Amino acid sequence: MRRRITRSKMDKMLENLGVTKRGIIQKSKISSRKSFREYLEDDDLDGLSITERQWYEAGWRDLDVALDWHEAGWNRPEEALEWYEAGWVDPKDAFDWHDDGWTDARSALEWYRAGWRNSEKAYKWYFEGWDDPEEALEWRNEGWNNPKDAYKWYNAGWYNPGQALKWYDYDWDDPKEALKAYNNNKSIDTKESRNRRNINKNKYHHNF
User: Fold this and answer.
1) Closest Cα partner for 90 from 119, 131, 49, 132?
2) Are 161 and 144 in contact (CB under 8 A)?
């Protein structure tokens, strides 16, 4: 005789599979990441919540990952999918970079992978024209705080950010002129540079 499965036993079996009576799959019960298709057919999305359905319709096919990105603060699933497909793994990091003004997910990821962790500072250097995040980080780590001035000296032919900063701090206004003097082994402390330093000091004291 075939043993009959009671409704309570059926409910228990579904619960163990992570499915509630409403047919919603509980994230905590999922042991591995599965696609939406493994839970519901394309033509039967009644079991999804409103949020899950929105993310499904935006192109997400991994329920667990979609919920992770949603919980990280992303409220536009299409935009989140663009960053996810660009290669971002941590949705919170991606959200922070996007929130600080980055619109190009792939460029942002390139700077993130180069070692930049402060997305706001990274964006300032990126905005000033630096296209090599590793070079920019090297100049930043050498003490350059103004990305615009750093880029000006870098473009003038200075490839040693530490040496460039010394001449910059000596109030050399023209990086090309400074580089010429540097290459000719001239002293950083010239009469002309001292005059510029005195002028700048007087301007500073006058302002205060």
Assistant:
1) 119
2) yes
**Nearest-angstrom CA–CA distance, 169 and 179:** 14
- CA–CA distance, 186 with 170 (Å, rounded to integer): 14
The CA-based angle 110-114-117, given to 5 degrees, is 95
Is the alpha carbon torsion for 182, 188, 192, 193 positive or negative? positive
Q: How many residues does the chain have?
A: 208
**Hey, what are 195's tokens?**
């005059």
Q: Residue 150: which region, alpha, beta or left (left: phi > 0; alpha: psi -120 to 50)?
A: alpha
- Is the per-residue pLDDT at 171 higher than 80? yes
CA-nearest of 196, 130, 203 to 144 is: 130
Confidence of residue 60 (pLDDT cuts 50, 70, 90): very high
Contact 116, 133 (CB under 8 A): yes
What pTM does this model have? 0.69
Give the span between the Cα atoms of 82 and 143, in whole angstroms. 35
On whether the CB atoms of residues 64 and 42 are closer than 8 A, the answer is no
Contact 12, 41 (CB under 8 A): no
97, 119 contact by CB (below 8 A): yes
